[in-house]
Write a structure and sequence with these properties.
alpha/beta; QueA-like; Thrombin, subunit H; 2 domains; 17 strands
Length: 348
């Protein structure tokens, strides 16, 4: 039996054959498989994502994360030296100042300058942080780093994806609009514009939050005791319309269903702070694991997550530990596709 007072990282381990890690996105987006988990009974059924409408009811509310991924991986060279360097931009600190990861780190000392895209973009290291991350100031034409990144940057795919991505838009949701993420909110990758329109036509409401996904999403839990893990912080925004729709949906007995763990963390963080979902913005480092009492969610659409990750812990908190681990065991047996470009799991 799971000891909520002494959660171990190993409690959330499962065996995953390497060949089940999806390397490329499926086409069309919504033809991915969909495991449906009833969190009350633990029962499991199998379908495809294009049948999502059959699981939802008129008056339900889907909350989606509209953050857009920055093509934040850039390759360049040391100024006057031609030594190779790789930058992965993590978070904008001010207009042209960013926190980033770089390889090889020993080449990026304070004051060192680098050139990218034949001079389209240059950078100078301002600070080396305790964790090894760098702070750098960039320079480019018109001080518009985003247009430069669009031209020379690559999508920051997770390390378990080794195939080259042919189309940058396949690592974006079809509803993405707010630039700022270092990784995609992958639960939303299954939606097509046509399916979203179909859902609205059937009486399902759509609302949006913004949570800029950081690479902390992929940071492994290194501590043996789960409660010793320090959660990363990410910036979020909840508009007035979304807060109002959540309140109205709850009042009439409808279900609030988060698309992705990022939407879930945004809603639950704000409700934990204010007692309900209100229009606001800020940063959240909420850590959701078994024993957490959900304040907003009635359903969750998510992908299959890494063993021993904070994301599988969140899913276990919502669906129940035994239900979750059994669902993952079933998904492996049924050869579902896992992780960012993998199949979908719907928990209701």
């Amino acid at each position: 039996m799971l000891d909520l007072n002494d959660l171990k990282r190993s409690d959330f381990y499962y065996e995953l054959p390497q060949e089940l890690i999806a390397q490329t996105p499926i086409e069309p987006r919504n033809t991915s498989r969909m495991l449906v988990l009833d969190r009350s009974s633990g029962s499991i059924s199998h379908s495809h994502f294009y049948n999502l409408c059959e699981l939802l009811k008129k008056g339900d509310l889907l909350v989606l994360n509209d953050s857009r991924v920055i093509p934040a991986r850039i390759y360049g060279e040391k100024e006057n030296n031609r030594t190779f360097i790789e930058f992965l931009l993590l978070e904008q600190k001010e207009n042209m100042v960013w926190e980033l990861i770089c390889r090889p780190g020993k080449k990026a000392k304070v004051g060192t300058r680098f050139v990218f895209g034949g001079g389209l973009l240059t950078a100078e290291i301002l600070e080396v942080k305790e964790d090894g991350n760098r702070i750098a100031r960039f320079h480019c034409k018109d001080d518009n780093i985003y247009s430069a990144l669009d031209e020379i940057g690559q999508m920051p795919l997770p390390p378990y994806i080794t195939e080259k991505l042919r189309d940058k838009e396949r690592y974006q949701t079809v509803y993405s609009r707010e630039l700022g993420s270092a990784a995609a909110p992958t639960a939303g990758l299954h939606f097509t514009k046509e399916q979203l329109a179909e859902l609205e036509k059937s009486g399902v409401d759509l609302a949006y939050v913004t949570l800029h996904v950081g690479l902390g999403t992929f940071r492994p839990v290194k501590e043996d005791k789960v409660l010793d893990h320090k959660m990363h912080s990410e910036h979020y925004e909840i508009p007035e319309r979304t807060a109002r729709l959540i309140s109205e949906t709850k009042a009439r007995g409808g279900r609030v269903i988060a698309v992705g763990t990022t939407s879930c963390r945004t809603l639950e963080s704000v409700a934990s702070q204010y007692g309900k979902v209100v229009p606001c913005c800020g940063n959240t480092d909420i850590f959701i694991y078994p024993g957490y009492k959900f304040k907003v969610l009635d359903g969750l659409i998510t992908n299959f997550h890494l063993p021993e990750s904070t994301l599988i812990m969140l899913v276990s908190a919502f669906a129940g530990y035994d239900n979750t681990m059994n669902a993952y065991k079933t998904a492996v047996e049924e050869k579902y596709r896992f992780f960012s470009f993998g199949d979908s799991m719907v928990i209701l």
